[in-house]
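Sharing in case it's useful to others searching the archive later.

Someone asked me privately for the predicted structure of Membrane protein insertase YidC, so I'm posting the question and my answer publicly. Question first, with the sequence:
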Amino acid sequence: MSVIYFLISAVLLFWHSAWDALLGDPHSLSTDWAWVLGIVFLVLTVRVALFPLFLRQVRSQQALQRLQPRFQALRAKHQGDPQSLQRELTEMYQQEKVSPFGAFLPMLIQFPIFIGLLHVLRHLNPAITDVATRTLYGWSEPQFLDASGAHLFGAPIAATFQAGGTVQIVAGVLILAMITTTFLTTRMSILKTGWSENPQQRTVQKIMLYGIPLSLLVSGLIFPVGVILYWTTQNVFALGQQIWLNRRYPATAVVTTDG
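And my answer, the predicted structure tokens:
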């Protein structure tokens, strides 16, 4: 994971330096804007880098949607014989060059990035006094001191909800935005393709729609403000991306069969 920590730090420091040079001393409304915008543009960098995978995800979802009638026919044919069903499904996916897991690839790639950012921001602890620790992952000591003292509307970006006061207000607003955008993006994605006829897949869809937002409520209480800002920003981008997707690739009607 050290490579990821270095990469995240490099991108964050690059954008902070760029905004610091552009804005001079961008501190207003009790906010260190160079660091806040650094986190926002870290999200933008990740989203742009993952866009080709996002398009691949879209095509994978469309292909799976087209294969729904064949899937239902195979399920009816092999009812009570899951091994034969799985074998023919595997052959169908190979023949059509479709991966049922292609839709999850961007999410899997984003996970270590998110964990890396969480680690880097937790590392920005003002209580750390050891110079060697402060300068991990390519940070200089002045950069560490500046970032560890950065604020978003008066809330330190390295602080968590438990800090109380202003942090709880800022974190609470971000958590609410994070949950809302997650729910809306997931709902739009599900409604575009439709609820699955497969009971197991339908259960997964319900877990994604309701379970993930609830888990973010719990996670948001322990994440630093900077991480919540990252996640909320990436959700806003994801929501905009989903709106664009629904307009650019409208859902096609799929004829279903009873099984």
